[in-house]
Amino acid sequence: MALLDRQGRLFGKFSILDIGAIATILIVLIGLLIVPGNSGSSIAQMISAENKTVQVDMNVRGLSAANPQNLVKVGDKVNIIIRNQPRGDVIIKKVEISIPKVVAAKADGTAVYFDDPRAVSTSQSDLVITIEAIAKVSNEGVVFGNEKVKVGTSIDIEGAKYLIRGSAMAVRY
């Protein structure tokens, strides 16, 4: 019995074109499930990710606002924007406001910290905002709306009266 017959069938039973089509489909499926795409996560990794409550501490430096304590409030539901793309809603869990400090050396060499007079005169303050939401957690990290959030990721939060830009300084789940 010949390997190929006159109709192009392998062992007289399987068409070479059919085998090629099946192999192509299998390669595409393997590529979709295993190989990471543009987001850096494969479909298999995203399917295995579980939804958890995630808290992100957001560091905001030099916010110019007259009354930041009346602007950003605990319990507010705000939009989160990661890398200039809206990624859903989050809840503000904690807000810490401080005035930027300046360090000066005393005569004996010890350091003394005091409020930066430039920041006080221009109504600048530093904030640490803790936001919370349900996000996907996988081996690769935390994913908000198909965007990974890691320490250093640029994050904006948008409320009714403000748009504040900061960066993630801690991610907990």
Return the CATH architecture of the largest domain.
Beta Barrel
> What form results from the Cα inertia axes?
elongated
- What integer value in Å does the Rg equal? 27 Å
Separation of the first and last Cα atoms: 64 Å
Spatially, the strands of the biggest sheet line up as: 3-8-5-4-11-12
The CATH class of the largest domain turns out to be: Mainly Beta
Classification by helices and strands: alpha+beta
Mean pLDDT: 85
Number of domains: 2
Helicity, as a percent range: 10-25%
| SSE ordering | EEHHEHEEEEHEEEEE
Low-confidence segments, given as residue ranges, are none
Question: Strand percentage, roughly?
Answer: over 45%
Task: List the defining traits of the structure above.
173 residues, alpha+beta, Elongation Factor Tu (Ef-tu), domain 3, 2 domains, 6-stranded antiparallel β-barrel, two-stranded antiparallel ribbon, 50% strand, elongated
Explain the overall architecture:
The chain is an alpha+beta fold and 173 residues long. The protein folds into 2 domains: 1-35, no CATH class; 49-172, Elongation Factor Tu (Ef-tu), domain 3. It has 4 helices and 12 strands. A 6-stranded antiparallel beta barrel has the order 3-8-5-4-11-12. A two-stranded antiparallel ribbon has the order 1-2. Strand 11 and strand 12 form a beta hairpin. It starts with 8 loop residues before the first strand and ends with a strand.
Task: Write a brief caption for the model.
With about 170 residues, this protein is an alpha+beta fold.
